[in-house]
Design brief:
Helix content is about 35%, strand content about 15%. It has about 260 residues and is an alpha/beta fold. The protein is globular. The N and C termini lie close together (about 10 Å).
C-alpha cells in the first residue's frame, strides 16, 4: 500500500483509557511520515485526535492522560445524570485549546457525539469549539454526565457509532482504522459494581457492528492485547504499557502491510 499522494482518512475508535494506544499508533505514524488529511474520532479517539491536531506530540498526549486522575473527588457530581461531571473537565481542555474551533485545526476533523433527545449522531462542524466537541464526544453514558452545547444534551459518540469509518467513506482514497476496544476477558466476579456492568454492556452492544466496519478500511490496527486492560485505567504504569502496545501493533501491522 502506498501513502504518498493519497488522501488519507484516519478513524480512531472509542475505548476509554485504552485510547492511549491511539497515541502510540500516532507516534509510529509520525516516524513513518504518514499524515492524514481527515480524522474521524469518537470518545477517547476524539480526545487523542484533537490533542494531536492541536500540536501535541504522542508522548505529550500520554502525559496528558496520566496527569488527570479521572476519579478524583472534585470530578464527582450528585446533581447530574452520571457519577462524574462532564463540566469538571472543561478547564483541562480549555487550557489547551482556548476558544479554538475544529475549523482552526490543521486536519479536517469529524468528531462525533450522540444527541440524547433526538437519538441521532452528531458530527460537529468546523464552527464548534474543540473543547466542547471533545467533552460531548467523551461523555461515557452512565458514568459521565451528558454535556450541553447550545441547549442540546450530548453523550458519548460511541453509543451510536463507536468506530466511525463510514463517515469518511468517499472522502478519502485510503482509510486507516485504529480500533482499541477488543472485548475484555472477564470473570463473573468482576461484575460487582455499576461501573463494571455499564462498561461491559456498552462494550458488548457495540462490538458486533464495529467488527463489520473493519471491511471498510484499507488498513486496520486492532491490538488484541488491550483486552487485558480496563476501560477506565488509572494506573500510570499500565498507561505506559497501553501506549507501547499501540506503537508496537502499528509497527507490526505496517511491516506485514508493505511486504
Amino acid at each position: 500500500m502506498k501513502f504518498d499522494g493519497s488522501t488519507i482518512g484516519l478513524i480512531l475508535s472509542g475505548g476509554g483509557s485504552k485510547g492511549i494506544a491511539h497515541a502510540g499508533v500516532l507516534k509510529f505514524f509520525t516516524e513513518q511520515g504518514i499524515v492524514p488529511q481527515h480524522i474521524a474520532g469518537t470518545s477517547s479517539g476524539a480526545i487523542v485526535s484533537a490533542l494531536f491536531a492541536g500540536g501535541k506530540k504522542p508522548e505529550e498526549i500520554l502525559e496528558f492522560f496520566k496527569s488527570i486522575y479521572f476519579f478524583h473527588w472534585k470530578h464527582f457530581t450528585f446533581r447530574k445524570a452520571g457519577f462524574i461531571d462532564s463540566d469538571a473537565f472543561r478547564d483541562y481542555f480549555h487550557q489547551i485549546f482556548g476558544e479554538a474551533t475544529l475549523g482552526d485545526l490543521p486536519y479536517k476533523m469529524h468528531l462525533t457525539a450522540t444527541d440524547l433527545v433526538s437519538g441521532k449522531l452528531k458530527i460537529f462542524g468546523p464552527e464548534t469549539k474543540v473543547a466542547d466537541a471533545v467533552l460531548a464526544s467523551s461523555a461515557f453514558p452512565g458514568i459521565i454526565s451528558p454535556y450541553e452545547i447550545d441547549g442540546r444534551l450530548y453523550s458519548d459518540g460511541g453509543i451510536i457509532n463507536h468506530f466511525p469509518t463510514d463517515i469518511l467513506q468517499g472522502r478519502c482514497e485510503t482509510l486507516i482504522g485504529v480500533y482499541v476496544s477488543p472485548i475484555q476477558k472477564i470473570e463473573a466476579a468482576d461484575m460487582k459494581s455499576i461501573k463494571a456492568v455499564a462498561t461491559r454492556a456498552y462494550d458488548l452492544l457495540s462490538a458486533n457492528s464495529n467488527m463489520q466496519k473493519f471491511t471498510l478500511c484499507d488498513w486496520v490496527i486492532s491490538p488484541d492485547e488491550l483486552a487485558l486492560y480496563r476501560t477506565f485505567e488509572t494506573n500510570r504504569h499500565k498507561m505506559d504499557e497501553i501506549f507501547r502496545i499501540g506503537y508496537e501493533a502499528a509497527k507490526k501491522s505496517y511491516g506485514e502491510l508493505i511486504v
